[in-house]
Design a protein that fits this description.
The chain is of the alpha/beta class and about 325 residues long. The chain is about 30% helix and about 10% strand. It has helices at about 10-25, 30-35, 40-50, 75-85, 100-115, 120-130, 145-165, 230-240, and strands at about 170-180, 205-215, 220-225, 245-250, 275-280. A hairpin with a 4-residue loop joins strand 2 and strand 3 (about 220-225).
Length: about 325
Amino acid sequence: MTRDGRSFDHRTLEAIRLMAVERVREGERPSAVVASFGFSRTTIYKWLTAAATPGMGLKALRSRPATGRPRTLTPRQEGQVFRWINGRDPRQYGLDFGLWTRAVVADLIERKLGIKLGVTAVGALLAKLGLTPQKPLQQAYQRDPEAIEHWRRERFPAIAQQARASGGEVWFWDESGFRADTVHGKTWGVKGQTPVVQRPGQRQSISAASAVNARGAFWYCTYEGGLNAELFVTLLRQMMRGRRKPVHLVVDGLPARSFRKPNAGGSARARAPSSVSAQTTAAHTSACGRSSAADGWNDERYSSSAGNVFTGEK
């Protein structure tokens, strides 16, 4: 198997050429010498011919500076560009657009370094830095990393401990919506002729609520319209059918999931089943797979981290 000399740097190739010619001059067979380095048989004869050039000798085998335009950015500056882009938002630098484009990167380089690059040069630079155009994941700007870390380290362990003490289970709850006229994914078609996908003329939508636990158990149901407190309680009752263990339910801060404790007259906005304990969460991944903001806690609407059980009929 022959090696591709383009995979070596110039200094290494220079050393190989000089050693190969020296060994041939000392009496070794050219084919054996070039085979020891893994190059094709004809390569060494080119080296020998170049070394025999009058007035040049072994100088003809030495590396020469590469031709072409000199690099515009230094390695240090290229590293700066990578750090500016990787994991950051253009708006953090006072730019108007929230996504990185070659034009936006060129604008930032000109602002920061005073060097003007074209979009083609910027595209080559980004490829060199290992950056590729990708569809970004979406996160709510209210997301609070400190609150999420507090939830993971302190609040959720307390909920899990309470669930174990009561012989119950911890479940995570969320809702999502689906539309029949939404086209997902990509298809193939003739260049310049966008394919047409037939869909219903009327918009049809349905909502779904789902819950999962740490062991992979999954529950879901569908419903129409928006979620309110009364419907939320109805869905909780459906979820609790046939269950004997109490459920400690982790939800986000959607107002529809709020409960009001009974007043002196016994009325209440909505009562959860007595076997369900609701907990607010700062977690950013939902049971239905969509992102939600880190809402913090609202202990007036939900139980505290101790996990008070809402009373009410099952």
